[in-house]
Amino acid sequence: MEELKTGLITKATGGFYYVACGGREYECRARGLFRKTGISPLVGDAVKIEVTGEKEGYVVEILPRKNSLVRPPLANVNTFVIVVSIKDPAPNLLVIDKMMAIACHKGMTPMVIVTKTDLGDPSEVEEIYRKVGIEVHTASICSDGWVETVRNALSHGISAFSGNSGVGKSSLLNKIDSRLAIATGETSQKLGRGKHTTRHVQLYPIGDGYIADTPGFSAVELERYEIIFKEELEDCFPEFKKYLGKCQFTGCSHTVEKGCAVIQGVNQGEIPPSRHKSYCTMYEDAKKIKEWEVRKGQPDE
Ligand SMILES: Nc1nc2c(ncn2[C@@H]2O[C@H](COP(=O)(O)OP(=O)(O)OP(=O)(O)O)[C@@H](O)[C@H]2O)c(=O)[nH]1
Ligand SMILES: [Zn+2]
């Protein structure tokens, strides 16, 4: 039997998986065994391949995944970058908190990049998320001082970008690496803005890491496919951690209860009120979720 190599799937189209491995790219098909297990390889997967030619091979094994997203189909995301502009459009804290909760739920490290800082003061948003322990960066197309810092922050593992339309994702990526913006721009043009078409995720190298090109990937889509049950929600707010287990009542929902340690944390100014407000909104929404609905709603992979 041929020697197996370990690589990373950076692209998947038309039944082929493109695997980066030791400075080379192999065009691979998947062995039939995946059909039996029901798990298909995803971009971001670390895989074992059987090399059959100079640039060809077969994916024979998927190494254990750290996490995965349904739409965009992507595995092993380390950093989940939430891009938010200070103006046009103005930041929506609930949307940021929803995205952040999903990232935490999936075991991804959230990062916030506040863009368009030439149009407004980002300090309020910065302060909320720094307090929560999240890495925050600021950026603007009118300056370059931030570029190196952000590039370094993204130069390990796989990073995925999310943010509503118009917040400046393409502009940001263009500053970080012009190859990225070309790719993103082309995809947006081909798809037409706002259209729901099958999209191909692709990984682009940056330093020792990769940035996932995920056109049109927004909070709406994220929320639709990644569901958090109400019991799990408290663990998706990292700043709640030190208060958990200290509430007066077991099974406290941390929304209105007397003797709630989380609410006390808010009152003492340790948890930003906007974060708790988002939590309560998400908790109310989560109460309406029934498990059977989730199963019914999940698309086939
Ligand atoms: N003033 C200012 N405008 C910006 C900045 N960054 C982006 N813009 C403008 O904001 C608009 C949207 O920027 P894009 O980079 O296309 O935003 P996007 O998030 O990629 O948008 P979608 O492709 O719809 O997802 C463009 O008109 C940009 O020129 C910035 O730092 N300052
Ligand atoms: Zn509580």
From TrEMBL:
- Record keyword Nucleotide-binding present: yes
Transmembrane residues, as ranges?
Answer: none
Q: Where in the cell is it found?
A: Cytoplasm
Enzyme Commission number(s): 3.6.1.-
Q: Name one GO molecular function term.
A: GTP binding
Residues in CP-type G domain copies: 66-220
Predominant location? cytoplasm
Describe, as the record does, how this protein assembles with itself and its partners: Monomer. Associates with 30S ribosomal subunit, binds 16S rRNA.
Question: Which purpose does this protein serve, as stated in its record?
Answer: One of several proteins that assist in the late maturation steps of the functional core of the 30S ribosomal subunit. Helps release RbfA from mature subunits. May play a role in the assembly of ribosomal proteins into the subunit. Circularly permuted GTPase that catalyzes slow GTP hydrolysis, GTPase activity is stimulated by the 30S ribosomal subunit.
- Tell me the protein family, please: Belongs to the TRAFAC class YlqF/YawG GTPase family. RsgA subfamily.
The entry's protein name is Small ribosomal subunit biogenesis GTPase RsgA
